Amino acid sequence: MRKKKIAVIGAGIAALTLAYAIRKDDLFDVTVYAAKNADEIRNGRIPSTQIHFDRFLRTEERFGIGPYGDVYDVKEIELLVGGQKMFKGRVNARAVSIDQREYLAALQEGLKRQGADVRKRRASPEDISLFADEYDLIVDCTGKIGPVVDFPIYDRIRNAPVAPQRVCSAGMFRGLAPDEEQKMAFNIVPGLGELFETSTMTRHGPARVLLFEPIPGSEMDCIKGDKGPDVFAKEMLGALDAYFPHIRERVDPNEFRLVDPNAYMRVAIKPELRIPYATANGTLALGCGDSVALNDPITGQGANAASYCAEALYDVLAEHRDATWDSALGERYWDRTREFATKMTEWTNGMMGPLSDSFSELLGRATQNQAVADEVVGLFLDPIQAHRVFFASSMLEA
């Protein structure tokens, strides 16, 4: 029996994780269509800022993903409200940060060294019919710019917003000293938004990451447009001056700048969950990652969710490798990932509004009890449990 042929569209976490999985077991033939080659990714704008949690790292180990260079370990997460330290919890498993440009470029290069068929092509909706004639399966991993396949919206999310709830500005900087090593700080300014601060590893060495998430139209929404790297750094410094003086006091104004001219991004995300399967010209098409489960970065789930769903998708394909790949297979994949995707989405959306009573109670107890503080941090590694706690009607249920 001939091997089934799979077209994977994308060059992000979902696409590359799936491609490594397929290459490792050699059950299928895979072609990866990447809009950018490794050099363009490495020298381009940052696509996101991420912390890769334990499940992500175990998936890498399973599929032989890497090496990709040095990383920065994150061992604690601290919550601050209005600059006041509330609590600091320990991450109970490994968590790391790396410049996504370096990570994605290294993975694409690794695939090519393995002999994988990686082609530079920015696929469009018009290409799908061509792929449908050549492949047994199309996997849309086009990320935030996608999807290119017309996957239907999943309309049963309890708190789906109709517009972006945050305006995200992120950069990797020199000239900002850490207050503590191996920590991520989650800064909340009530009614205005958030700022995340941690370190990451870049090709230039360690850098400080700032992810600034003001509510659109609020007084803290003070970084406007894309006026270039120098203006971006000045505007970020202005935001620190106005809203995060406890961070601003660690800045060396003579050294504060981006690590390179492309080490920043601005985006406003409208969270959206889609049913991740459709048929294109009689061929099954599946979605994986941000193309079908797009969330705001406030809970840090993007890369981790993409890895989770890619692994789940591969397992479904391997389990049904001799079956007909049709909408029934798509439904099996959706059954495998629906709870995770739905609860991750609802929890993330909930974190951008008024916090629930049960979650607020838990945060209050975390200020008094280290074990509870560690429990709160653990929720970021387990979105299903985080959802259960966030939406519980009382702490007895949580």
UniProtKB/TrEMBL annotation:
Pfam families: Smoa_sbd. It comes from the Bacteria. This is Styrene monooxygenase. Residues 162-250 form the Styrene monooxygenase StyA putative substrate binding domain. One of its GO terms (molecular function) is monooxygenase activity. The keyword Oxidoreductase applies. Keywords: Monooxygenase, Oxidoreductase. The lineage of its organism: Bacteria, Bacillati, Bacillota, Bacilli, Bacillales.
